[in-house]
Amino acid sequence: MASDAQTTTEYIKHHLQNLTYGQHADGSWGVAHGAAEAKAMGFWAIHLDTMFWSILLGAVFLWGFRKAAKRASAQTPKGFLNFVEWIVEFVDDNVRGSFSHKNDMVAPLALTLFVWVLLMNTMDLVPVDWIPQIAHLMGIEYMKVVPTTDPNATFGMALGVFVLTLFYSIKVKGLGGFAAELTMQPFQAKNPILKILFVPANFFLEFVSLISKPISLSLRLFGNLFAGEMIFILIALLFSGGAVLAVAGGVLQWAWAVFHILIVLLQAFIFMTLTIVYLEMAHSHH
Q1: In the chain, is it the N or the C terminus that has fewer CB atoms within a 10 Å radius of its CB?
Q2: Coil, strand or helix: which one is 20?
Q3: Is 218 among the residues known to form the active site?
Q4: Which of 100, 216, 218, 240 is catalytic?
Q5: Number of domains making up the chain
């Protein structure tokens, strides 16, 4: 709920500010006490809240699936074990449908990304003031609980996928084959002189296509979740506007949360699917 001591702009900025740790202008290291200090810390600053929640949710994923794996048996699964098996089968079906090569790493990677991104996205359904208020009582000034609303997190995951794409492109096709893929298409010619002339144009087009993969992968996830978080914050402002607006805010919050469940699931699915597609392209010979 918006505090009476804050203006609307201050409330929104506060909820969009990460808990940032880095080097201050005087050379000391510590937590930033505002957006200006966080910006001045530069590239090497760390968003502590993003790191905390992403690692915590990753640990929850590992703990839950390890517990389910230890309980697995030939009998009909029930409860949580049945849920985990359904997720594994769902991911496995998507990998089989989109990835036509042999690589035992792809399915576990797809499963990890899907569940991890889903857990991080689901944090957006927690009321926007609950955890920040608890953090405030503990003396923590800022607390963003949805890691996927931080472009640092989404770019980090996308860059990991991009590095794997480059690695398998070179491993499967060889350095020469990968270089040819970047320079010998889409424009082709039998004349050797025209071939050479087409190389710069081909490289430009293929390089842009290659670089756009991690950018689109990260920005799509970030943009959708950031927009959803912003709407939740705007709805929360209604609770400080009197009884009528508070009731309207409650209805809108419930309606948006129900709709946002689709976005939470869909964005995790899209991130997983595009990862599989990019790795399929890396393994394919043109």
Answers
A1: C
A2: strand
A3: no
A4: 216
A5: 1
Q: Could you confirm whether 220 is annotated as catalytic?
A: yes
The answer on pLDDT for 237 being more than 70 is yes
Q: Tell me, yes or no, if the pTM score tops 0.90.
A: yes
152 as an active site residue: the answer is no
Q: Spot the catalytic one: 98, 103, 152, 220.
A: 220
Higher pLDDT, 73 or 130: 130
**Arithmetic mean of pLDDT, 247-254:** 93
Domain membership flag for residue 206: yes
Q: Which of 44, 53, 54, 56 is nearest to 20 (CA)?
A: 44
In a domain, 267, yes or no: yes
- Quick one: residue 200, left, alpha or beta (phi over 0 = left, psi -120 to 50 = alpha)? alpha
Handedness of CA 116, 118, 119, 123 (dihedral sign): positive
Taking CA atoms, 180 is separated from 67, 158, 231, in Å, by: 47, 25, 47
Q: Which of 71, 224, 240, 284 is catalytic?
A: 224
Q: H or E stretch including 46?
A: strand 46-47
Angle (CA) 94 215 151, round 5°: 100
What is the side-by-side strand order in the sheet with 46-47?
Answer: 29-31, 20-23, 46-47
Is 203 part of a structural domain of the chain? yes
